[in-house]
C-alpha cells in the first residue's frame, strides 16, 4: 500500500509501505476512504515533535471501512463504516475510567501518527478498536465525519466545555483557523449573547462570520478594545486561545473579565508569560488540555441531526495520491485560503472562503 511517511524534519513522501495487519486481539484494520491534515502534522514536519520517529506514517484522523478485526473486538466488524478517532483508549487505566482518554496510560492517548503508524495511508491499524473507532450513521457524510475525529471534539471539549460557556455570555475566540472556527460553531450551541472572532486573515474572519460570529477583529488592531467596548469595559466571559503563541495567550488574559475563563486550546512551542501581578486579583480561571474525545458520540448525533456545520470548513479536496500537494496547500494557507484539506472520496472544486 501507499502511505505518507515522515523521514525527519522537512522530509516526508507518499510511498510504498507494508500493509498493516492485526497485531493484538483488540486491533482493527481499516481501509481509509477519507483523511485530513492537521496543524499538528505540520509541527511534526518542522521537527517540533521529536517523539515521532523517522519511518512513521503520519495522520490521526480518518473515515473508512473495517476490513479485519482481532478476536476480542466486539463493537465493529468487517464491512462497518467507521470514524477513526485521533485519540486511542485502552479503557482500563485510571484516566480512561475517568473519561480522560487523551491521558491514557495503557498504550493509548495520542498515538496514531505520533508513536505508531497513522491514518494518512490506504490502510491503518487501530489499537483498542472497541473504544477508538465509532460506527457512522449513513446520514453523516465522510467530509462531515472526518472533522469529528479531532478538530470539533478539541474545540468543543478544550475550548467550549473547559471555558464553561453559558447562555448570555460574551465569548472571544482568538485564532479563526479550523479549531477556532469549530469553537465558534460549538459555542453557539450554548446561546451566548455574542461571539467575537480575532484573527489576522480577512478570509478567516469572513469564515467566522459565516459560522456565527457577531463581531470580528483584526488581531493587529487592538481587539481588546473592541471586546471592552462591547462589554461595557468588563471583558469577555470566556476567551478561547486557538493559536498557540505567547502573544495570543497574553492577549487572551487581557481580554477576559474578572471571574471569567481563559480556555487554552493552541499548541504552544514557546514559553508564555503569565502576568500574575495583574491576574491574581481577578478570579480568573485558566484551563489547558489535550482532547479526550469523550464528546465524539454526542457530536456524531448532532451531525446526524444537521446541527453541526462541519464540512463548511472544508476548502480543498484531493485524492489520496496527491497527499504531497495537499500538504503544500495546507502549509501555505495564507496564500491558498486553506482551512481544512480533505483527501479521498468524491472530488470537487475548491470552495471559496470569502464572500463573492
Automatic annotation (TrEMBL):
InterPro entries: ADH-like_C, ADH-like_N, ADH_Zn_CS, ER, GroES-like_sf, NAD(P)-bd_dom_sf
SMART domains xrefs: PKS_ER (SM00829)
Signal sequence segment: none
Keywords for the protein's UniProt record, in alphabetical order: Metal-binding, Oxidoreductase, Zinc
Claim: Transferase is one of the keywords in the record: no
CDD domains per record: FDH_like_ADH2 (cd08286)
Region annotated Disordered, chain positions: 1-21
Cofactor (UniProt): Zn(2+)
Keyword Cell cycle: no
Transmembrane segments: none
Chain ranges of the Enoyl reductase (ER) domain: 8-343
Domain of life: Bacteria
PROSITE patterns in the cross-refs: ADH_ZINC
Name this polypeptide is given: Zinc-dependent alcohol dehydrogenase family protein
Family named by the database record: Belongs to the zinc-containing alcohol dehydrogenase family.
Organism this protein belongs to: Streptomyces anandii
Amino acid at each position: 500500500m501507499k502511505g505518507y511517511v515522515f523521514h525527519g524534519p522537512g522530509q516526508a513522501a507518499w510511498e510504498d509501505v507494508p500493509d498493516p495487519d492485526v497485531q493484538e486481539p483488540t486491533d482493527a484494520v481499516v481501509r481509509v476512504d477519507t483523511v485530513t491534515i492537521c496543524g499538528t502534522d505540520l509541527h511534526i514536519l518542522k521537527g517540533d515533535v521529536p517523539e515521532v520517529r523517522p519511518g512513521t506514517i503520519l495522520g490521526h484522523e480518518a473515515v473508512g471501512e473495517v476490513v479485519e478485526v482481532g478476536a476480542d473486538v466486539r463493537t465493529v466488524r468487517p464491512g462497518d463504516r467507521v470514524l477513526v478517532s485521533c485519540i486511542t483508549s485502552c479503557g482500563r487505566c485510571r484516566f480512561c475510567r475517568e473519561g480522560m482518554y487523551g491521558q491514557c496510560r495503557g498504550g493509548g492517548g495520542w498515538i496514531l501518527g505520533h508513536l505508531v503508524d497513522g491514518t494518512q495511508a490506504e490502510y491503518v491499524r487501530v489499537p483498542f478498536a472497541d473504544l477508538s473507532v465509532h460506527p457512522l450513521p449513513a446520514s453523516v457524510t465522510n467530509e462531515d465525519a472526518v472533522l469529528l475525529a479531532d478538530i470539533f471534539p478539541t474545540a468543543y471539549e478544550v475550548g467550549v466545555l473547559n471555558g464553561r460557556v453559558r447562555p448570555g455570555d460574551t465569548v472571544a475566540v482568538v485564532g479563526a483557523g479550523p479549531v477556532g472556527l469549530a469553537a465558534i460553531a460549538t459555542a453557539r450551541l450554548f446561546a451566548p449573547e455574542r461571539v467575537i472572532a480575532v484573527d489576522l486573515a480577512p478570509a478567516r474572519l469572513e469564515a467566522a462570520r459565516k459560522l456565527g460570529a457577531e463581531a470580528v477583529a483584526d488581531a493587529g488592531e487592538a481587539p481588546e478594545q473592541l471586546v471592552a467596548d462591547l462589554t461595557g469595559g468588563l471583558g469577555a466571559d470566556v476567551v478561547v486561545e486557538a493559536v498557540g503563541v505567547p502573544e495570543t495567550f497574553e492577549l487572551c488574559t487581557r481580554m477576559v473579565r474578572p471571574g471569567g475563563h481563559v480556555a487554552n486550546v493552541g499548541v504552544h512551542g514557546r514559553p508564555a508569560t503569565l502576568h500574575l501581578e495583574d491576574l491574581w486579583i481577578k478570579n480568573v480561571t485558566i484551563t489547558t488540555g489535550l482532547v479526550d474525545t469523550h464528546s465524539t458520540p454526542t457530536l456524531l448525533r448532532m451531525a446526524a441531526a444537521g446541527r453541526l456545520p462541519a464540512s463548511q470548513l472544508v476548502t480543498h479536496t484531493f485524492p489520496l495520491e496527491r497527499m504531497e500537494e495537499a500538504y503544500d496547500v495546507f502549509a501555505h494557507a495564507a496564500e491558498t485560503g486553506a482551512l481544512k484539506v480533505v483527501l479521498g472520496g468524491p472530488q470537487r472544486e475548491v470552495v471559496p472562503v470569502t464572500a463573492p
